[in-house]
């Protein structure tokens, strides 16, 4: 079985090198996130402040209250989205699957829109609305998909329900006033502006179990990749495994959407990048690599979002799309039509 | 179902819906007064024509693309044409309001239509160029590159909206979701050339589409020059989509559902499928437009206990998924493959 599952026939770089290199890049972007900004901080000072969480100095407050939470949130969100992408693409056996198909992002946005327009919710309550909406929509979509055992049908159902949620968002927006419309638009675009330690801790608590748990699915993903008949023949309950994978993906995506808004492309691109770098699809290696790539992508995008038009900021969702679309175009052209 | 000819039924339903569309509204007009009522002539008839033409164009474009890509999920937005057209229209709206001064935001006029068609065709050409490897376009790449081009164009639209004022924001929203509010004779004139060119080109290419459906290899063996043929079908779909979107905005779902319904009625033969898809989609969009005008806003008002203003009406693009998705789900569930 090991021989079947792990077939990294045309590995380009050794796995350990890739892992180490990506960890280095991530550490570098995190350090840059701490030092760069409207008030530049020398890296020695940033590291000193990092060692002193209770410090009263300006550097310590800047690092611990503003820059570290935001950089950590970006890294954690990127890793979670990438892991969700790997699980989904494996579960549905489709290279184009991304969490958009689970209705999580559109459901969260719908809940936020309803909260703003009809319930006049306070801005601090919005992450709660988003989390509830994302999880609720995910469960509804999964429930509808559960009626069908065919992955193509599951994709169709997910896409259709996501479209329905999006239409309902617009309906709610049309009924609201201009100010509400602007608040909803700010959420819909995906951003890390003004996120603090409480946002990071919330995401950390919610993903602390699921992110390591995702790694445990690597054997199952390898078996699923052999095809349904083969997996069933190997004694796997394909139907239940698929539900478990999708449920985990929902659990990974909904908290991210709640704290950063819908951020596209990472869940789609990071798994492809990991497979391309690795030259294989062995899930035990693709999963950690994809998580690291997702973290690097989102922290880099956030750095650019802060620096590109300083002192103003771009929403990170836009930067991710601007970086992710050309990368995906290059990658997929090479990958799918050699 | 495939054996019987559904044309009389389709025509009858279309006529019935059209009459309902003309008679209902804020002012109910009795059937007898229909031919010479001023509201019908000035307001409802041009809107009905726009809705019928745009529906037919989106339906045929969807059928063309589903045939070319051999993918049942293909729809007019696939090539990035809709997103490109919307982006160009948004650019034109913002540029025009800069030139004419603040507060002067107009969402209609020839310049928007031309910008929309230009932007849509440009995005479609980009998608096609990206889908070519070694001189041949690949259907798989066409789908993927279309998704990416559309995503990028939508992202740029969102970026522009960050700096837009409230008035522009609402207008642009109506363009991205698709709306037929306030469409008049000038819009019929804007739509007509693209409808005439695109519909005739699409319907006449049904024979070629049939050959392409068999796969590139078989089509080539039948003597078809595959690449020019595919380019022609894609071009027809792009003209149809860009023309429709530049007048009514990015209405979704009609172009996906219309062809599927048509396929259930008449089967896979493109010579029957293409006209049927156009008719069914026109019928669906007219129904959705009728629905958009008679949505029960009072219920929402009562539930939310706050006044509902909807200053510019419910856009029809909201209604098409609300009606279309449940129907689509029924389609998916009702047609299980036999084990």
Characterization of this structure:
The complex is a heterodimer of chains A (338) and B (339). With 338 residues, chain A is mainly alpha-helical. Chain A has a single domain, classed as Orthogonal Bundle (ABC transporter involved in vitamin B12 uptake, BtuC). Chain A has 16 helices and no strands. Chain A has helices at 2-5, 15-35, 43-50, 58-91, 104-117, 126-146, 151-175, 178-188, 197-207, 210-216, 218-225, 228-233, 238-260, 266-278, 283-307, 316-336. The relative contact order of chain A is 0.17. Mean pLDDT of chain A is 82; it is low at 1-9. Chain B is mainly alpha-helical and 339 residues long. Chain B has a single domain, classed as ABC transporter involved in vitamin B12 uptake, BtuC. Chain B has helices spanning 7-23, 38-69, 81-100, 110-130, 139-162, 166-177, 185-204, 206-213, 216-221, 226-248, 254-266, 270-293, 297-304, 316-334, and strands at 132-133, 136-137. Chain B has a two-stranded antiparallel sheet. In chain B, a hairpin with a 2-residue loop joins strand 1 and strand 2 (136-137). The longest helix of chain B has 32 residues, at 38-69. Chain B is globular, with a radius of gyration of 20 Å. Chain B starts with 6 loop residues before the first helix and ends in a 5-residue tail after the last helix. At the A-B interface, helix 7, helix 8 and helix 16 of A face helix 5, helix 6, helix 13 and helix 14 of B.
